[in-house]
């Protein structure tokens, strides 16, 4: 008996064999957290692959902050990092495993490991503290990678896969195996590798489009091929990972889901190496908005309202803003779901339709992703109780007393300069203060004063606090403008050389002449080639710019002499 999808034409008739319904065996995590085993599992790799974006490196405290929000968002798996990369990465993964991994209804905490015994052992020692730990190990399987990177034969790769997955399984009951560059691998060999991994104890098989090479129809066909040819595949979860080099990452994932993939590996805002990863928010909202189309692939009636993921969609906006703030990766205005223009309408025809009925030009509500109306909420006479109450409504109920106090002081400073404090202002203030709270930099900006004008030589006087010896240092400098003068002064004070400013971006949080200005800078450390970011917000754009620049230089100072291992360029 054929099935016709709701909204499809008579020619879009799909037979039951083509619906690719998967009925997975419930895992221990499914059973103990009460999550629907028929869902699409959301594997978030913002803290691992996303952090590999140039300039996106986060401190351990920042990673922990993001991990807590990801758990609140409802992701099923957090890939917290690559533990062997550095001592800092190991500590960050361990802390996330200890805290977020033991929250009520916790996600699985996963670490990445190359197919090396030392990598796998180190990964286990980092994630083992979580209630649901996972080891994610990988080896390349495409001919081009095996020849030029691994310098190993197919037989050697099969042997390493068997040995290392067996070892990982001896440590951890939940093991994910990835065949790097799977979409450029010989399918027949891929079937062999995955069959060996399942036999050795892998519980999840990940299919990575490592270089963003494939197309939706190819990805779907490969997933179907794996389900037909991999021995033991019915007892494991098929996962997909992919990059956006050709702009098709999300489309590829949606096709893979149609083919039977039931875990997707994605990042907030689509951040990641090169053109980035598949964006979590786009995948989740596609499954949410087009539920009637995807339901039959899950054995459900088209009109079934049960969610296809465990994601709390109203947490999407806040998670997006937090990741953008901490990584310095500015979201382009036309970005799907979370871009500034995603729910904006300028066309007169569109505006008329929206006023009559939102559904004329909107397929989802802004409120569905947690984007609250930008109403006026607080003023300079508002007290601490009202401040906390409003932050709780915005989802910041987990703030510690110290974090709340810092944010409240900052709120009062802004309220003295700005008559109207909006929800977006509050979010910016809190995110800024939380970022400063976790800033492990050596120097703190105490004072910034500039003199400039069309008949003046721009001059800046900067006072910094050296937090290691509690000493102040004041430096004055001139420049081509107020920001340049401030940057020259800060650079002199820190004594850091071989720095190149790559990008300087100013944006306003809200409309109005008194709006908070957010500044993002991106620097290159010419001694290492690494890129670092800094970000800050203030009603005074020069102060925000100086704080952002100082934050970036602090990151340079911390990282110099300590270059972490990259997972894809190590030796097997």
UniProtKB/TrEMBL annotation:
Keyword Amino-acid biosynthesis listed: yes
Name the UniProt key words of this record, in alphabetical order: Amino-acid biosynthesis, Branched-chain amino acid biosynthesis, Leucine biosynthesis, Metal-binding, Transferase
State which Enzyme Commission number(s) the record gives.
2.3.3.13
Instruction: Please name the Gene3D superfamilies in this protein's record.
Output: 1.10.238.260, 3.30.160.270, Aldolase class I (3.20.20.70)
Name any Gene Ontology BP term.
Answer: L-leucine biosynthetic process
Quote any Pfam family the record assigns: HCS_D2
- Domain Pyruvate carboxyltransferase span(s) in chain numbering: 40-302
Pathway note:
Amino-acid biosynthesis; L-leucine biosynthesis; L-leucine from 3-methyl-2-oxobutanoate: step 1/4
For this protein, the record's InterPro entries field holds: 2-IPM_HCS-like, 2-isopropylmalate_synth_dimer, AIPM/Hcit_synth_CS, Aldolase_TIM, LeuA/HCS_post-cat, LeuA_allosteric_dom_sf, LeuA_bact_synth, PYR_CT
Q: Which domain of life is it from?
A: Eukaryota
| UniProt GO molecular function | 2-isopropylmalate synthase activity; metal ion binding; methylthioalkylmalate synthase activity
NCBIfam families given in the database record:
leuA_bact, PRK00915.1-3
Q: Which family does it belong to?
A: Belongs to the alpha-IPM synthase/homocitrate synthase family. LeuA type 1 subfamily.
- Show the HAMAP family listed in the entry: LeuA_type1 (MF_01025)
Entry protein name: 2-isopropylmalate synthase
